[in-house]
Amino acid sequence: MRILPAAIALLCIVGVAVDASLAADLPVGQIDRFIEQKWQQADVQPAEPISDSRFVRRLYLDLVGRIPTPQERETFLADQRPDKREHLVDLLLGSEDHVVHFADLFDTLLMGRGSDRDYCNRREHQWRSWLEQAFRENRPWDEVVQEILLARPASPDERGTVWFLYERENDHQKIAEAVAPAFFGIRIECAQCHDHMLAGEIEQRHYWGLVAFFNRSENAKTENGPRVKESAIGGFSEFAKLSGESTPNLLTFFGADVVDEPRPDADQKQEDLPELYVEAALKGEPQVPKFSRREQFVSHVANGHPLIARAFVNRMWAILLGRGIVHPFDEMDSTHEPSHPELLDWLAQDFRDSGHDIRRLIRMIVLSRHYALDSRRPEGIDDPALFAWSLERPLTAEQLARSMQVALHGSFRNDHPLFRQLRETLPDVLPETVGTGVDAALFLSNNPAVNTFIAESDEPSHLIPRIQQLDTPAEQVTALIVTLFGRPPADDEIERIAGFVATAEPGSQARSQRWQHVVWALLTSAEFRFNH
């Protein structure tokens, strides 16, 4: 694919090119060097590194979507190997919990929060299982993108690929407005009626050109299930400029050539003839146009487009560090300059050179120095884009639901009712601005389901019965704080909690209720609801 001058201009604005041969030879520590260079330029001292006890909580939340169990935490802390953090990263990246957590994230990032029916449909029609399998196999990201956009299953196991397009129900503008930020990291809605007023490199023809790539696609029911078929004719519309001039919507997109396609005269009627199609490779699948606009988009635009890698590494950076190198992460245009342009270029080039290896990218980021910085902001530093301290991140609905179960029950179920209730309350993944998490606090404070969940946590192996079996108040409070927060309690915490619980007789129902009140207070605290 040839990159056009407009795209070159954008890439010059949002980043400085790194030679491919140099990028391939750079060590993982290059990430730290780019970050530290900015610290030196800004004359700031970063936060202190965190302890192993805080690192293990942060890493579990990021890689497997939950806090560690006490046993997992103690196993890591007892490990005497100097490279135990590397071993833990590899262990978690290879786990099924990691697969499920990242499928959670990307289901929401690509599809949005849906209704209960949407979630059921995504599972029934194998979108969810296909997404999980992609992360399980560590499938190259560029291949994942191409399979989603082509939406043409190569085998029955691949039928979930159609759902990204299918769920948008033949709304071709909605499809275009989803494709651009999800895979290219740019928002094009503002170019529907005119060229982007601020990011002039995003033109109206890019918006309608992207629509044109998909406007022959239509949902269909087949003997193999829901599919997105494609016509070989039609879709030759025009868009109106602000001047009133009408312009043909050619097959083009930001940073790519126009794809040539014979265009009939305005008064010429096209016939949808059998010779315009070939039979699908699989029995029961829709026939395929010999000239497929979706196929042209995948092969001539998405394949090799530089923004595919740049958008993904920027998004992964935001997932793991709280904000993108370009922020917001899905507005990578000339109005949003990267905080570290050389770093973004190096990461994107390294990602391409690695074959779009997702786990390798994650591993590099979480083993970097700045990932393991304290979340307490150093005095005199206000700019979060320096990444001089760890940005606190609110837990997603899924992280919170799993972590509550792990904290109180020692294990978790991915079908627990808490997931549905929290998804309705906490719709955002990667919010543009991080607030106080008041929605989560109110849900945990006022929802009867949470009180019931805490009150029903009375099995002998559950947290409240287990801590009551310990001998001293100090041991009980310590076990509670370590389980929920992953740290030992302060002296005043022991004194206050033990004093409150001691107002009820040992072994009484009132004593258990005191512990329930304490657990409720800790679960609603920011220390539990945030990754820090």
From TrEMBL:
Residues 30-218 form the DUF1549 domain. Residues 294-405 form the DUF1553 domain. Pfam families: PSCyt2, PSD1. Keywords: Signal. The keyword RNA-binding does not apply. Residues 1-23 form the signal peptide. The keyword Signal applies. Coiled coil: none annotated. PANTHER family: CYCLOINULO-OLIGOSACCHARIDE FRUCTANOTRANSFERASE-RELATED, F-BOX DOMAIN-CONTAINING PROTEIN. This is DUF1549 domain-containing protein.
